[in-house]
């Protein structure tokens, strides 16, 4: 699988999880990421850094695996 395809799939998962959480791009980006930088992640235009992955997963209240593998985001904190 091409790198660009993987980036797009991850970006799509993040977008789906964000919408399901009822958050805007601005809500997720907050003060840690720029809104434009976050938009590029959702669009699959950039490589997702581990630190950004962990931050986004925390904001979305999912395990990072839910983003990377597309698994069900069942309560990660139980």
Give a nutshell description of this structure:
By secondary structure, this protein is mostly helical. The protein has helices at residues 3-20, 25-29, 35-43, 50-60, 64-68.
Give a written overview of the molecule:
The chain is built from five helices and no strands. It is an all-alpha fold and 78 residues long. Helix 1 (3-20) packs across helix 3. The N and C termini lie far apart (34 Å).
List the helices and strands and how they pair.
Elements: H1 3-20, H2 25-29, H3 35-43, H4 50-60, H5 64-68
* Count of helical regions: 5
Q: How many E-type strands?
A: 0
The radius of gyration over CA amounts to 11 Å
Assembly state: single chain
Global geometry: globular
Name the average pLDDT. Answer: 90
The structural class is mainly alpha
Q: Strand fraction band? A: under 5%
Helix and strand string, N-terminal first? Answer: HHHHH
N- to C-terminal distance = 34 Å
**Uncertain ranges:** none
Largest sheet: none
- Helical amount among residues, as a percent range? 55-70%
Using brief descriptors, characterize the structure shown:
mainly alpha, 5 helices, 62% helix
């Amino acid at each position: 699988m091409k790198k660009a395809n993987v980036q797009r799939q991850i970006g799509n998962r993040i977008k789906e999880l964000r919408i399901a959480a009822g958050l805007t791009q601005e809500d997720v980006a907050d003060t840690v990421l720029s809104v434009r930088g976050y938009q590029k992640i959702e669009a699959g235009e950039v490589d997702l850094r581990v630190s950004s992955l962990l931050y986004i997963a925390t904001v979305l209240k999912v395990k990072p695996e839910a983003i990377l593998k597309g698994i069900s985001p069942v309560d990660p904190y139980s």
